[in-house]
């Protein structure tokens, strides 16, 4: 400090208000506490040192005593037990007492002595057959405690010796009992001898082994022997190790066994059944485990642990071979045998479904087929990270699980679960507890199976060989009628208690019923009403619609990114709940879409039954905007929205694109010069040269007549509409050879088009572009396509029920085969099909080697669907592919996905209802002195109303350039239809004129004819003159 000039010393003041004495007191107390703790720590240190020293001295003394006793033992009984007789095992002898005291499993001399002891014991028992007498003498009841202790120690010592020396004995662990020269066999055989269930101490010994994790040691012994015996093939009675396990497995705590409850971590199920492919090593053990009472006990025991079962299993051998997956594979492999037994109980099936569900939930997906829905479920970063970290299962283990869940297993499981439940229970009664348990067990197991395993063969057996569909429908119908859904949350670990009761049943019912509808024929569905009546299907549609609306709009799942703030366990559970909700929304959407297709083929319910009740103007306004919830619903479940609303959305999307490209184009236009007698060739040559952007822009057309003279008229849009209608009529004419007609005069690509046109694929691409241009400009064209071809525009697959529209005779033959009662192999059919195009016959195999593969009762369903696939998909695949490429140049896939095939045809061609004269009259303007009550106008509407449908279409083409009216009615005609007076006076010269039109303005120029007959004659002449635009 620098001198401040003030010589006085200032008193220091504590601004905290504390005196120095108080600070000193606190420091003293803290110092005292530290010293006290230091003294305590020193005392504890000294005490610990004394204990360590005491323990060390004790252990040292024990080692010395054991060494001394070992030397004494060798002197008394010989190093190789030369002096041992049958009395040496008796309770009064020191032989076992001394040996068990000093025995060490890692001491090679002790191990050899133990092997010799086991050989001697086997020999003595074999000679007189009484094990108890060798250990207890004549009175086991008085010496039982000591005898039990010695037998426990001897058996446990044998297991420890095998475990300690397992690597040295790895070649001997799976040998048969006859191989007594091998050191491992006598040890195993003595264990089998001493834990025989007939012996009075059996349960006590086995219980002791369980408590001391002897099965954990046996597990490691088995794994060592298994790794060294890849080519081991068990024969005869099996190995000594298998005999040991067959004795242990019988100790299940039920009479006559009196074993006490054991820690599940040390149980037979946890330690042995988790060994990979354990039944392949021990086939006799598999038969014992598969016995009715045995498997039921173990599976019930596992089921009691529920979702905590996996936590009690031993450490995984590797990431590719987890313990839970090994347990699952082994359980499934034996369950088929247990379920096939007539006495298999309902409770056994429920427990089995529960255990396999919990284990399968933990599996990584082992699907070998394309999982198209997987990419649609929860794209959260956290899930992607988990998927990236997920390790695939070992291929052999994966195959074991996949093979075990076979049609036979599924058939037995579902039949046992549902055999005591009637499918016709009265609606007034809700499901009882037993039915809820059956539905919960079946749905929990099947839902997880669908997500983990390939579904192809699973679905077929569930759909056609079980009563799953009618049973689940009966359950859901009664829950719906009683407005009370039973909670099934206990059957899936991640399904919360407040989850809707319909969630899990729908997750299983929808994909199975959807698969069934792909294979069922029209007679079964409409006439026989199998598997569900049409009345039930109407009720089902309502349930599905309400559930889907609830999932997608009312209770839509929150943003998955919010999960990142939650704990790991709760986040994982939340993800799984959202995953099942998303999965259910997808399968319900697919099933409703398929039911709508069936309704379009032959209507059995009102189309409005598919529409959600909550669709309003706000929803429609949101649906137009990308990335909104309403827009997502429009893409996933468009049928929830009325057709007219979707058409408005589609029209607005097209208008937005047209406006964007029209403003960018400025004054540049594509102009076509088309000869009417070469309309297709000229259009192909000129339109094929346009880029995608130019195709979206305006195209103006000038027609040239047969004399090479340009027709009158300036194209303001009307000539282009006339051009589009004429070229589509010419291009899709069956005489041209690119398309063929069905019996109902519906068009589909000609499979033999390549035999007529060398460049047929380029023509199909052009025709796709042509149709897309018509739709893009809002021009309706009268082209009736076959439904199965329209499916190709939506990139959908066609099935058997689409075949009648193509080839009714072939369909009838296939249905005959499907319901044939005799032996189909007698019909001498093979997996080949004969194509006949323009008199040229070719034979194609439906499967590799199909010429030598006969159709039988077992594979007839496969044959039927391969034939249908060949005709509906394979034959026209290339033509459809090129047509689709051209179509998608202008029309995006998500625009078309808003509509089903029936609705898509309406978008292309409109409907006859769009030629409503009254609707046209309500939306007509008048000019030049005409008005709605003018006598000429009154005559005109009377005449038009009396026209035939064909003449109405010609009239509409005459005034608008298109023979079809707007899809939603004439109020959407742009501009509105207008009738203009063509002559100022009613002179003879004026009245002798024909009506003319300006199609670009939708304008009819009508002279003021004096009589109805004159007006009708002139109008009919004008619309039938086919004079192009010379009358304009």
UniProtKB/TrEMBL annotation:
Domain of life: Eukaryota
Entry's Gene Ontology molecular function annotations: ubiquitin protein ligase activity
Keyword Transferase assigned: yes
Keyword Protein biosynthesis: no
Catalytic residues of the enzyme: 1000 (glycyl thioester intermediate)
UniProt keyword list: Transferase, Ubl conjugation pathway
Assigned EC number: 2.3.2.26
A GO biological-process term: ubiquitin-dependent protein catabolic process
Domain HECT: 691-1032
Region (Disordered): 1-22
Cited InterPro entries: E3A/B/C-like, HECT_dom, Hect_E3_ubiquitin_ligase
Comp. bias (Basic and acidic residues): 8-22
Pfam (any one): HECT
Catalyzed chemical reaction(s): S-ubiquitinyl-[E2 ubiquitin-conjugating enzyme]-L-cysteine + [acceptor protein]-L-lysine = [E2 ubiquitin-conjugating enzyme]-L-cysteine + N(6)-ubiquitinyl-[acceptor protein]-L-lysine
Free-text function comment from the UniProt entry: Probable E3 ubiquitin-protein ligase which mediates ubiquitination and subsequent proteasomal degradation of target proteins.
Family: Belongs to the UPL family.
Name of the protein in its database record: HECT-type E3 ubiquitin transferase
């Amino acid at each position: 400090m620098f001198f401040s000039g003030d010589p006085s010393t200032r008193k220091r003041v504590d601004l905290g208000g504390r005196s120095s004495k108080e600070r000193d007191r606190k420091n003293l107390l803290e110092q005292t506490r530290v010293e006290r703790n230091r003294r305590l720590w020193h005392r504890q240190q000294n005490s610990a040192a004394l204990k360590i020293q005491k323990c060390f001295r004790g252990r040292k003394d024990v080692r010395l005593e054991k060494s001394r006793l070992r030397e004494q033992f060798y002197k008394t009984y010989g190093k190789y037990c030369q002096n041992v007789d049958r009395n040496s095992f008796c309770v009064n002898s020191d032989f076992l007492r001394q040996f068990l005291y000093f025995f060490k499993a890692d001491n090679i001399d002790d191990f050899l002595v133990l092997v010799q002891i086991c050989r001697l014991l086997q020999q003595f028992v074999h000679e007189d057959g009484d094990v108890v007498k060798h250990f207890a003498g004549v009175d086991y009841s008085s010496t039982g405690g000591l005898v039990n202790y010695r037998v426990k120690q001897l058996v446990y010592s044998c297991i420890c010796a095998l475990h300690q020396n397992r690597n040295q004995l790895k070649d001997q662990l799976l040998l048969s009992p006859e191989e007594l020269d091998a050191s491992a066999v006598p040890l195993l055989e003595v264990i089998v001898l001493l834990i025989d269930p007939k012996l009075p101490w059996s349960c006590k010994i086995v219980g002791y082994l369980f408590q001391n994790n002897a099965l954990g040691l046996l597990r490691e012994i088995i794994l060592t022997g298994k790794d060294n015996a890849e080519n081991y093939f068990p024969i005869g009675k099996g190995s000594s190790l298998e005999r040991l396990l067959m004795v242990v497995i019988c100790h299940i705590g039920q009479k006559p066994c009196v074993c006490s409850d054991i820690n599940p971590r040390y149980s037979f199920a946890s330690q042995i059944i988790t060994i990979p492919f354990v039944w392949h090593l021990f086939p006799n053990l598999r038969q014992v485990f598969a016995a009715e009472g045995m498997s039921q006990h173990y599976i019930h025991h596992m089921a009691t642990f529920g979702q905590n079962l996996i936590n009690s299993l031993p450490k995984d051998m590797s990431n590719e071979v987890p313990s839970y997956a090994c347990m699952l594979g082994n359980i499934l492999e034996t369950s088929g045998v247990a379920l096939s037994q007539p006495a298999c109980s309902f409770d056994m099936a429920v427990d089995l479904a529960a255990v396999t569900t919990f284990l399968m939930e933990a599996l990584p997906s082992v699907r070998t087929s394309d999982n198209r829905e997987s990419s649609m479920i929860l794209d959260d970063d956290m899930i992607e990270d988990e998927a990236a970290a997920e390790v695939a299962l070992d291929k052999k283990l994966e195959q074991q699980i996949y093979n075990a869940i076979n049609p036979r297993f599924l058939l037995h499981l579902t039949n046992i679960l549902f055999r005591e439940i009637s499918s016709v229970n009265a609606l007034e009664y809700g499901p009882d507890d037993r039915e809820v348990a059956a539905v919960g067990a079946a749905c929990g197991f099947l839902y997880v199976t669908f997500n983990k395993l390939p579904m192809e063969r699973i679905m077929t057996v569930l759909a056609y060989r079980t009563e799953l569909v009618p049973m689940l429908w009966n359950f859901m119908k009664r829950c719906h009628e009683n407005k009370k859904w039973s909670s099934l949350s206990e059957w899936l670990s991640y399904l919360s208690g407040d989850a809707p009761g319909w969630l899990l049943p729908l997750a299983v019912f929808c994909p199975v019923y959807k698969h069934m509808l792909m294979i069922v024929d029209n007679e079964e569905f409409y006439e026989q009403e199998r598997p569900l009546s049409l009345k039930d299907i109407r009720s089902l549609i309502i349930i599905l619609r309400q559930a889907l609306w609830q999932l997608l709009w009312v209770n839509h799942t929150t943003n998955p990114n919010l999960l990142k703030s939650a704990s790991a366990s709760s986040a994982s559970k939340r993800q799984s709940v959202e995953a099942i909700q998303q999965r259910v929304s997808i399968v319900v959407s697919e099933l409703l879409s398929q039911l709508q297709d069936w309704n379009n083929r032959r209507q059995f319910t009102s189309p409005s039954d598919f529409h959600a009740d909550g669709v309003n103007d706000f929803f429609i306004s949101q649906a137009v905007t990308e990335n909104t919830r309403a827009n997502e619903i429009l893409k996933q479940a468009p049928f929830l929205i009325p057709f007219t609303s979707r058409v408005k959305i589609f029209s607005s999307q097209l208008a937005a694109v047209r406006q964007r490209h029209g403003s960018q184009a400025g004054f540049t236009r594509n102009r076509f010069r088309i000869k009417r007698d070469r309309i297709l060739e000229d259009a192909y040559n000129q339109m094929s040269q346009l880029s995608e952007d130019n195709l979206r822009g305006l195209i103006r057309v000038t027609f040239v007549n047969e004399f090479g003279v340009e027709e009158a008229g300036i194209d303001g849009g009307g000539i282009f509409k006339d051009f589009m209608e004429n070229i589509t009529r010419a291009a899709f004419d069956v005489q041209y050879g690119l398309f063929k007609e069905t019996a109902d005069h519906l068009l589909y690509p000609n499979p033999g088009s390549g035999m007529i046109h060398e460049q047929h694929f380029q023509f199909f691409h052009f025709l796709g572009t042509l149709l897309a241009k018509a739709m893009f400009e809002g021009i309706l064209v009268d082209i009736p396509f076959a439904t199965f071809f329209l499916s190709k525009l939506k990139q959908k697959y066609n099935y058997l029920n689409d075949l009648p529209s193509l080839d009714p005779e072939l369909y009838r033959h296939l249905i005959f085969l499907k319901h044939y009662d005799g032996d189909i192999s007698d019909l001498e059919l093979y997996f080949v099909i004969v194509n006949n195009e323009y008199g040229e016959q070719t034979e194609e195999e439906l499967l590799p080697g199909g010429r030598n593969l006969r159709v039988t009762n077992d594979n007839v369903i496969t044959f039927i669907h391969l034939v249908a696939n060949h005709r509906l998909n394979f034959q026209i695949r290339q033509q459809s592919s090129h047509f689709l490429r051209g179509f998608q140049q202008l029309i995006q896939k998500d625009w078309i996905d808003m509509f089903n095939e029936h609705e898509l045809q309406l978008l292309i061609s409109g409907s006859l209802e769009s030629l409503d004269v009254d609707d046209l009259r309500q939306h007509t303007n008048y000019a030049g002195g005409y008005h709605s009550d003018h006598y000429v106008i009154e005559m005109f509407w009377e005449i038009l109303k009396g026209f035939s449908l064909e003449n109405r279409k010609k009239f509409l083409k005459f005034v608008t350039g298109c023979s079809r009216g707007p899809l939603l009615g004439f109020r959407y005609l742009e501009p509105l239809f207008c009738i203009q007076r063509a002559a100022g006076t009613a002179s003879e010269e004026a009245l002798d004129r024909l009506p003319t039109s300006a199609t670009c303005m939708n304008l009819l120029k009508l002279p003021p004819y004096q009589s109805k007959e004159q007006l009708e004659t002139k109008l009919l002449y004008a619309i039938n003159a086919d004079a192009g635009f010379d009358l304009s």
